[in-house]
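dumping this here before i forget
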Amino acid sequence: MEEKKRFKVYKVIMLIALVAFITFLLTTIGMYKYLISNNSIGTNKSDISSLIGNSGDISTKLEKYKKLIDKYFLGEVNEEKLEEGAIKGYIEGLNDPYTEYISKDKMKDFLDDTTGNFVGIGIYMVKDTEKNKIMVLSSIKGSPAEKAGILPGDLIISVDDIQYTADEMSVAANKIKGEAGSTVKIQILRGTETKEFQLIRENIRINPVEGKVINKNIGYIEFTSFDENTSEEFKSKYEELQKQNIKSLIIDLRNNGGGIVDEALEIADYILEKDKVILYEVDKNNNEKIMKSKEDPIVNVPTVILTNGNTASSSEILAGALKDNGKAVIVGEKTYGKGVIQQLLTLPDGSGLKITCEEYLTPNKTKINKIGIEPDSNVKLPDTVKNVLNIEEKDDTQLKKAIEILNEKNN
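structure:
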């Protein structure tokens, strides 16, 4: 069952057909232009024509560029790098921000990010460009970093005695990651004080579902992505809140960039009556698939969903489904507008292709892609709020509006 769940990631399917490898770098076209314009290397246009000709499919053309490389290139040729660069460039030519080639060595990190798990100390980092340092944005609840007392605003000076600047944040992040149970030494600067921490790496749950009771009887649930098991965590958290006699519910999808579509469908299923349309999926041939709720709802209280411009993808599926079915009021700002779905195709060599394959429409057949979902109640945050990821409750006008709406329904 666990194996089946893992391969639901972005509706992952395995390619079993042999993939014809594209073996040479597209960007060597620049070399071709140089060769035909520079006679100092002892060639001319007729020489080039005889080598590469003027026609052929992409594989044939790349094979011809190989001849140019073999004949003129001065440096060493790494065939594996050429192959990877050629495939990556070919995919980038689609000009789709959501379609990407993922090399074999990056596939594990990609799947870890998708499932919401990694091994490390549990911190979010940003670049402090003014000080050219890596700054801790926050520590993940229950992580080794939080337990040790690493705080937002701490500047990371070194990892295992190697110093890093803001520009080297990705290198430092990879250094901080490691095997569970291993130790990493972090030196930080807090104000004028330097502190050192010896931390044991753990398996970190990046995006847990958080829940609490606010305003005496309103349940509040927040999560920042739809990862593996998010729907089960949502159900568990709701049941906990239900035992505390909540009369209504706020689902905070602000800054939730989406994730696994099936997880969003399951949460919608918890809230909608059986056989209600959740969304329509439409492929390139206009074939339409209708996704409907399968079970009776477990959430039977008035619900508000909070959204903003960072609410995207699977978050929009959930918000659109509940809005169109009259099961939730949307409060906040218009959503991002990512209304397309990707599949992750795993190639035989271990690399992957995340490819846009379908567009989705809400139950009312409303288009979302590049448009977004308009809230029922449009509420902006005050200009004094500088960080939408960390809003103090006293400044959260969107949350206050949600509470106001639910108090009216509860009375």
